[in-house]
Design goal:
Radius of gyration: 16 Å
Largest sheet: 3 strands, mixed
Distance between the termini: 35 Å
Strand order of the largest sheet: 1-3-2
Shape: globular
């Protein structure tokens, strides 16, 4: 698919919205914009590498036998002002997708340089708001609400089966479903 230009960094030119609902809508809109530009809705799971590439982000594998001491799950850095996401080959492939989408969220949300990804950052319950926002972006990007509902209407209702369909860890499915539940309970 040809990529349309993305309106990256929604919080960079204006103050970051303080209230969670406004921030969440902006994050959801950004994930939706990226998917619309680069994803064929008939295919699951979404190709996180293609989405990052379409957003102009280079992905580099790190770790593995040639670099066994690579200490991070992944990280976003800027080399010559170009965004680069490093991903550890030691990570489980499903977890690598979350790390990639989370780091992509940091970039597209305009967070700039952030510390390498750790287990505590990769959660909507992280104590830091930018980590919560990046993780919300990751979950929304890889598991669009309409795709979840479509699968559920087709009888795919267990977290294990949804995990298989979206190729993400079951814990990520639980977090996404909790976030959707909170969203609908506020309406």
């Amino acid at each position: 698919m040809d990529a349309a230009p993305l309106s990256c960094h929604p919080f960079r030119d204006s103050p970051e919205p303080a209230d969670a609902a406004t921030r969440h809508r902006a994050i959801d809109a950004l994930a939706d914009e990226l998917r619309k530009a680069l994803w064929d809705q008939a295919t699951l799971p979404l190709n996180a590498h293609e989405l990052a590439d379409g957003a102009g982000v280079e992905i580099r594998d790190r770790g593995g036998p040639q670099e066994p001491m690579y200490p991070h799950r992944g990280r976003l850095l800027y080399l010559d002002e170009r965004p680069v996401i490093e991903l550890s080959l030691a990570e489980d492939p499903m977890r690598r997708r979350i790390v990639l989408a989370h780091a992509l969220g940091h970039h597209l949300l305009g967070h700039g340089a952030v510390p390498p990804e750790t287990a505590s950052n990769l959660s909507i319950h992280s104590p830091r708001r930018i980590e919560q926002d990046a993780h919300r972006f990751a979950l929304d990007l890889l598991m669009p609400d309409f795709a979840i509902y479509r699968l559920m209407n087709q009888g795919v209702v267990s977290a294990r089966r949804l995990s298989e369909k979206f190729f993400v860890p079951e814990s990520a499915v639980h977090e996404r479903l909790q976030a959707l539940d909170r969203h609908w309970s506020h309406l």
